[in-house]
Amino acid sequence: MDWDQFDLNPKVIVALKKADIKSIKEILNLSGADLQRLMKLSSADIQCLLKTVSRTLRRNSMLTALQLYQDEDHLTSQHRKLSLGCSVLDNLLKGGIPLVGITELAGESSAGKTQISLQLCLCVQYPYKYGGLESGAVYICTEDVFPSKRLQQLIDQQHELRADVPAEIIQKIKFGNSIFVEHAADLVTDAVSESESAQCSCSAADNRVSPALGITWANQLLMRLMVSRISQPEQSSGVASHHTGSVRTLRVVFAPHLPPSSCYYTVKLEGVKGIK
Q: Could you tell me how many helices (H) and strands (E) the chain has, helices first?
């Protein structure tokens, strides 16, 4: 990469060459703190560098409507979805989580958000043939401790959850090597604290749970999913009564390609499983 072609401060260009950083991909794969340490620059210089390379990427990725129409690979990725590792949940979402746009999974405490997230971290590593992307996952942990023991449990039980996948394929996947965990508890807490407290007061009054980030964030989403636990009286009167353990509900709140709908699911040792 010829860094001299970029609109950067000369000292930043010199620092890039000294650090032996040769591509934009290398820059974006490093955190701001890592770049500061490698390049021995100030935080302001690093932010300027990141903005400059980001603008370059956006400029190079501009496509006309005709180019998009003719790009079969792009159209394929638009319609491809990530499986949740359960046919019942996949059927609810007409195939799984869309790869384009942002999907929000919200819900009350202990409703199963973390369990579904961990399961997706494993599902993404499967071959395309089995609903995966042959790729890895970035898990941004907003709690004090990442649930590594539970993740290992899920990895050990993949042969039970994914009976649709041959055992030899599961054995070949090094699940633990393709999940990058980043902690951001303080950042997230500060960002949502005011709106979250306002939403909680409303929820207490009308007995409903609402996502805490408000309407501005909601307008950035492609799809919103809500999870909730079913109370014991409800369980005894419905389909949930035939299943041991806590029964939960996964509900489609809004999505351009799906009607409002829901299904029951449980969290078992092997993972999250929908109830038919």
A: 14, 9
Residue pair 108/149 in contact by the 8 Å Cβ criterion: no
In angstroms, the CA 102 to CA 97 distance is 9
CA-CA-CA-CA dihedral for 138, 1, 35, 48, to nearest 10: -100
- Amino acid in the structure at residue 165: V
- Residue 208, classed as helix, strand or coil, is coil
Q: Which residue has tokens 């951001």?
A: 184
pTM score of the predicted model: 0.67
pLDDT at 220: 87
105-to-63, 140, 160, 204, 263 alpha-carbon distances in Å = 31, 14, 25, 20, 15
Q: How far is CA 137 from the centre of its chain?
A: 8
From the CB of residue 171, how many other CB atoms can be counted at a distance below 10 Å? 10
Successive 10-residue mean pLDDT values, the chain, 276 residues: 85 91 88 90 92 77 71 63 95 93 90 95 95 93 89 96 94 93 63 43 50 75 91 52 71 93 94 93
16 vs 26: CA distance, rounded Å: 11
From the number of C-beta atoms within 10 Å of its C-beta (0-12, 13-18, 19+), residue 154 rates as buried
Of the CA atoms within 13 Å of residue 256, those in its CB half-sphere come to 10
